[in-house]
Automatic annotation (TrEMBL):
Residues 8-160 form the N-acetyltransferase domain. InterPro entries: Acyl_CoA_acyltransferase, GNAT_dom, N-acetyltrans/Recomb-assoc. It comes from Bradyrhizobium canariense. Pfam families: Acetyltransf_10. This is GNAT family N-acetyltransferase. PANTHER family: ACETYLTRANSFERASE (PTHR43451:SF1), ACETYLTRANSFERASE (GNAT) FAMILY PROTEIN (PTHR43451).
């Protein structure tokens, strides 16, 4: 008899989540971004999880935790009412719909807070995910993280719209 897969859940961030979220953040960068970023860039990016600001940022944003069988496996944070600041899923569960579930929830929450548009500074490996959801590239950015330059793209979606019709997939 086939065994049912565990149903994912969502819950709010708790301060005691910081260590496990830092581990998800680090594993996600290490295992999912190698095609788009150099090892030095990955190391600099991962080091920001050790900074005290990592936990403070999660606490000050509206941060949601994706869980499987009660254990955190991903997270996303909404900064203010209209900017996705973080979206990370553990590589072991990547591609199972958890990032979609997290972003769906943030889009609803942003709309509920009165936002008509939502922005994200998407890493190179996340651009395709956001584009499929109707986010449009607005500008290319270069940021410095721990003395390394990293590129990302500011993307924007008008809330209440689905994936862009006629967009290349």
């Amino acid at each position: 008899m086939a065994q049912a897969l565990p149903k994912p859940g969502l819950r709010p961030f708790l301060p005691e989540d910081v260590p496990v979220l830092a581990a998800i953040f680090t594993a996600s960068i290490e295992e999912l971004t190698g095609e788009d970023y150099s090892e030095a860039q990955q190391q600099a990016w991962m080091a920001s999880a050790e900074d005290e600001e990592f936990g403070k940022g999660l606490a000050s944003d509206l941060t949601l935790i994706a869980t499987l069988e009660g254990s955190p496996v991903g997270f996303a944070s909404l900064q203010g009412k209209d900017h996705i600041r973080m979206l990370y899923v553990h590589p072991a569960v990547a591609g199972q719909g958890l990032a979609t579930m997290l972003v769906d929830a943030l889009e609803k929450l942003a709309g509920g807070r009165g936002a008509d548009k939502l922005t994200v500074d998407a890493s190179d490996n996340a651009q395709g995910f956001f584009a499929k959801r109707g986010y449009v590239a607005m500008q290319r950015n270069s940021i410095t993280v721990n003395d390394e330059w990293l590129a990302n793209t500011t993307m924007q979606k008008t809330l209440g719209s689905g994936p862009a019709s006629g967009a290349l997939q």
